[in-house]
Amino acid sequence: MPSMSSHRRALPARARFQDLHAAEALVVSVLRLWAEPLREPDRQHPHWQDGMTAAGLSNDAAVAFDTLMRIVLAATTRPLDLHRPPCPSLGIDEALLLDMLRLAQQGQHGEAGLLMNDWLPLPGVRMAMAPLCVLASALTRAGLLMPDPDAEALQPHRTMADRVDRPRPTADRGATLLH
Question: Where does the record place the region Disordered (predicted)?
């Protein structure tokens, strides 16, 4: 049986937000926007659901995402490494969520649960797997597949111009805060 570490993403290859594929960038952006009101409850924040709607995801996907993250926050065994929206680097737990979604999209629910066990005790994993799978299915139906880093490693090197599914930076990243 594969170990949990065999499913972890090699973070150096995807340590930067700008290196994410479109589906990954959407999930990380939604996650960061979802977490912002928890950090600064008195400020006005963009609606995290707007990105999901613009990407063609149903309300079920937004409900599943919100349910998943509420379960995680209620039962997590440790602080989560989630970065602020303008941060150019990728948080460890942001990458972990992407890996869980990729595994769920590939039908590897047990492996996704093993990764989730890094966040939650077993009863929490049992509760959170259903919304994770609903979200993964909604992303799949919308054509938003999480890329497999192992499969990409086997492909010949492509330049940024060859990657049509990568987000393009629109702001000066030199002036942004890291966290």
Answer: 149-179
Helix (DSSP H) and strand (DSSP E) numbers for the chain:
7, 0
Give the start-to-end residue ranges of the domains of the chain.
14-149
Q: 15-67, pLDDT tens digit by residue?
A: 789 999 999 999 999 999 999 999 999 999 999 999 999 999 999 999 999 99
- In whole angstroms, give the CA distance from residue 49 to residue 61: 9
Distance CA 18, CA 179 (A): 16
Place of tokens 């602020």: 84
| Residues found in the chain | 179
- Kindly list the distances between the CA atom of residue 48 and the CA atoms of 30, 66, 90, 106, 150, in Å, as whole numbers in the listed order: 5, 10, 18, 26, 30
Whole-number pLDDT of residue 148: 86
Whether this prediction's pTM lies above 0.85 is answered by no
